[in-house]
Amino acid sequence: MYLIHKAHVVNEGRVYKASVCVKDDKIDAIFRDEVPQNILDKSTVIDGEDCWLMPGVIDDHVHFRDPGYPAKGDFESESRAAVAGGVTSVLDMPNTQPQTVSVADVEDKKAMASAKSHCNYGFYLGVTADNQDELNRADYSGICGVKLFLGASTGGMQVDDPERLKRLFKETPALIAVHAEDNAVIQRNLAQCKQEYGGLVPISCHSRIRSEQACFDASSKLVNLARTTGARLHIMHLSTAKELALLEDKPLADKKITAEICPQYLTFCDADYEALGARIKCNPAIKSAADRDALRAALATNKLDVIGTDHAPHALSDKNGTCLEAASGMPGIQFSLPLMLELAKKGVLSVEQVVEKMCHNPARLFGVQKRGFIRKGYQADLVLVHRKFPWTLGADAVQSKCGWSPYEGQSFSTKVLYTFVNGQVAFGPQGVAGDVRGQALTLGRG
């Protein structure tokens, strides 16, 4: 039994001083006043005096590369990075090898993760040109939704036939999460850059190729389709100011079209390609400083509902070459919470809003049962963060198998001290606990 003693609990829009008792895998009690002596005597006491205690982060967008890409990462290595950053649950994408495009594929992934993962896990079903019947008969109490790649991206799962999209939106009984880029716009932009530079297109052209227009054209088409059909649409990794006009400033419960933002679009802009090159090459591309600033401003509203990472590790060697050769994607899961807390300290959003968009709203959106909140009887997925702990990120701190981070050299003023997964210390002063395993998430929305 653990007692996290006198922490600053951040939960459900409030910050208050309390002690939280963890027994077995559950939150057993929350003490706003003094803790009974018999509880203190029976517990392993963790001092929370200078710390925030938050629900564990639920990252709705990860590529853990398993199965199929062991050189980039696997569920052991990437879940190790997750718990080191306060992330206790992840929703993993289908563009693996083999692709996750059937219920049987999801079950195979669950079996694999159960043996490897330090955090809890759920999986998306991928949309293909001909698997609608499979999507229709899936049991979404164990699948978080379906993933549509409208624009070509890593994994070769692009689907953009208008009739296929109509059927998808009319029939799918679950949330449709989308990678929204218009491939025709991308191809036009690519042809222009090739004409200008020949085969040596620089990394700095990435945001010209995967432009604002490519994102807006795709997102607006999908939003119109969702409004026409009544489908639940979740636009992932929003990267432009223009797309914000497509979204409603309403609480998540009052809308069926939602959006995710990622830390890289809130941290970097296209001017950073000069220093960081392909380390910040991702799809959609990082855009202008004006886009970054508009997305930051939207964090304080209800237009952006959740913060995910699009964690997508590559070996640094995969990042070599021109814009047409270097791989797209970056690791990010280990440092997403500290990055967002830095924005909170700058006044971009509140600490309560960080928890809303990283913990509560992912649980609500995907129906994650008994997680995402600090409530008695809920699973003890918790993160204890020191509020005043200055440090600078070096490569030696990176837990992901790729061994690097685009955020290296950045200074932080908060630090994850403990991460509890189902009542067990998955990360603490001794590092990641090798024997802690997460659970398959139970989901409550169809």
What is the element layout, followed by pairings?
Blueprint: E1 2-11, E2 14-23, E3 26-31, H1 37-42, E4 44-47, E5 51-55, E6 57-62, H2 75-84, E7 87-92, H3 103-116, E8 120-126, H4 132-137, E9 145-149, H5 162-171, E10 176-179, H6 183-197, H7 206-209, H8 212-229, E11 233-235, E12 257-261, H9 263-267, H10 273-276, H11 289-299, E13 306-307, H12 336-345, H13 351-366, E14 382-386, E15 391-392, E16 411-412, E17 415-421, E18 424-428, E19 431-432
Can you walk through the features of this model?
This protein is α/β, with parallel strands linked by helices and 446 residues long. The protein has two domains: 2-53 and 379-432, Urease, subunit C, domain 1; 57-366, TIM Barrel (Alpha-Beta Barrel). Helix content is 29%, strand content 22%. It has 13 helices and 19 strands. Strands 1, 2, 3, 4, 5, 14, 17, 18 and 19 form a nine-stranded mixed beta sheet that branches. Strands 6-7-8-9-10-11-12-13 form an eight-stranded parallel beta sheet.
The CATH homologous superfamily name of the largest domain equals Metal-dependent hydrolases
Q: In what range is the share of β-strand residues?
A: 15-25%
Overall domain count? 2
| Distance from first to last alpha carbon | 35 Å
Mean pLDDT across residues: 96
Count of beta strands? 19
Top-tier CATH class of the largest domain: Alpha Beta
- What is the architecture of the largest domain at the second tier of CATH? Alpha-Beta Barrel
**Unreliable stretches:** none
Largest sheet features: 9 strands, mixed
Helix percentage: 25-40%
